[in-house]
Amino acid sequence: MNDAGQSDAEYQILERSSIPAYLADIPAVAAILGKGEELDIQEIGDGNLNFVFRVSSKADASKSVIVKQAVPYLRMAGEAWPLGRDRMRFEIRAFSAYNDLVPHLVPKIYHADEEMSTVVMQCLDDHIILRIGMIEGIRYPLVAQHIGEFMAETLFKTSAWSMGSIERRELMHQFTLNTELCKLTEDFIFTFPYFAHDSNYSNAATDQWAKENIHTDYQYKRDVLAFKELFVSKSEALLHGDLHSGSIMVNQDESYIIDPEFAFFGPISFEVGKVISNFLLSCTSHYHRSGGADYRQWLLEQVSLIWKTFDSRFVEQWEQAGESTMLSDGMFSKEDLAKFRDGFMVNILQDAAGFAACSMARRTVGIAGVADIRDIEDLEIRSALEIANLKLSKLLMSERKKLTTIDELLTLVHKFYSNPIL
Ligand code: ADP
Ligand code: SR1
Ligand code: MG
């Protein structure tokens, strides 16, 4: 047994050569690929943590599944950086919760194997990673509504405004030990990017700017610390925990949320802020990339649509909810509760702006950058965009408490972008 109570004897790192035998005993998979079929197997993982294989029938490539396995180290760093494979246990649990709450927005799970730290799921062959689509300047007409709906449904229904006290604490208990991934977030989003830490990325002009404007800006760093405290202490709802444009697969009609291994009970505004920050990072990148002004405008419209969908669906569910951990009939008039709710949603918006600020800083100077910016080869251009993202991070952080609507947030962002970026 390892520290997480998993049997190491049952575990084996999958290779292309061992996958056919592993899958052969799983009836749900044989039903898709066919029994005894010759298989095509490719490792397609491009994430930071795990290995992902696309497995299809040689005779009919449309018959396919995805096999995702956690290995006992951090993929992006290699075996020298151990990381418990227990993370797959939480990915499996989160997928199971999402399958109950939003089955149309997550891949179908065919098989979940905690001993092997493996999940076998629907292969989204007709979809691409949203980040890649956004780098290419592609518009997705429904993605913002889908993201807003995903967050409203999963966050409201796992919050104390919807669930009873006992069932909610039981659900929370299933996620409290996602310790290592919560610590990765604490370190890599809320700590390392704000001083000269060895793990940080380096680009000379950006480093110099960060040294003068981030490392010594103690008001900004105290604000980051306040958001770290919120992250570690507020167990508000079941979060995906890593909801960014690399965790969403899309086409023109559908969106699927993947990769919920960071799931835990945390502050709702973390989820909202993280997703918004990825549209802002992409927007900055399109001062250099080919999307141009029209695409930048589309990206900022998506921020508005995500928030508005999230806000209206969250509030709608709240208005229709019965008794819950938080509320009993007869405690409030509708009008008085609505006043509380208005303040609650404004707080989420303001805190989302603060979390977006932290996310933008970590994706800029931290080890795990985003391809939108990091794949730009010209270091001077890349640095100008990085500095713009750091400036926007600081602006969101310092102005967040003045924001009461998403339109005000976007006015701030538009004004920021009206200054020269390159
Ligand atoms: P990690 O946890 O290592 O970040 P992800 O779950 O994000 O891994 O998956 C890595 C990549 O594998 C994704 O970016 C995507 O390209 C591919 N992928 C993951 N799940 C699916 C799926 N269900 N269908 C098709 N491709 C997938
Ligand atoms: C070392 S941190 C790696 C990052 O990759 C994941 O996608 C998460 O965002 C995590 O913070
Ligand atoms: Mg992941």
Structure, explained:
By secondary structure, the chain is an alpha+beta fold. It has two domains: 19-122, Phosphorylase Kinase, domain 1 (2-Layer Sandwich); 128-417, Aminoglycoside 3'-phosphotransferase, Chain: A, domain 2 (Alpha-Beta Complex). The protein is 50% helix and 12% strand. The chain is built from 15 helices and twelve strands. It has helices spanning 19-24, 27-33, 87-101, 130-135, 143-157, 165-173, 179-190, 204-213, 218-233, 268-285, 292-320, 334-365, 371-374, 379-399, 406-417; strands at 39-43, 51-57, 64-69, 73-74, 78-82, 109-113, 118-122, 128-129, 237-239, 248-250, 255-257, 264-266. Strands 1-2-3-7-6 form a five-stranded antiparallel sheet, with helices on both faces. The protein has a three-stranded antiparallel sheet with strand order 8-10-11. A hairpin with a 4-residue loop joins β10 (248-250) and β11 (255-257). The longest helix is centred in the last third of the chain and has 32 residues, at 334-365. The model has no long low-confidence stretch (mean pLDDT 97).
CATH C-level label of the largest domain: Alpha Beta
Q: Superfamily at the CATH H level of the largest domain?
A: Aminoglycoside phosphotransferase (APH), C-terminal lobe
Structural class by sheet pairing and helices? alpha+beta
How many distinct beta strands?
A: 12
CATH topology of the largest domain: Aminoglycoside 3'-phosphotransferase, Chain: A, domain 2
Helix content: 40-55%
Bound molecules: adenosine-5'-diphosphate, 5-S-methyl-5-thio-alpha-D-ribofuranose, magnesium ion
- Rg on CA atoms, Å: 22 Å
Spatial strand order of the main sheet: 1-2-3-7-6
At CATH's second level, what is the architecture of the largest domain?
Alpha-Beta Complex
Q: Beta-strand level of the residues, as a percent range?
A: 5-15%
Q: Tell me the major beta sheet.
A: 5 strands, antiparallel
Whole-number tally of structural domains: 2
Mean pLDDT: 97
* Unreliable stretches covering 5 or more consecutive residues: none
Which overall shape is indicated by the principal axes computed on the Cα atoms? globular
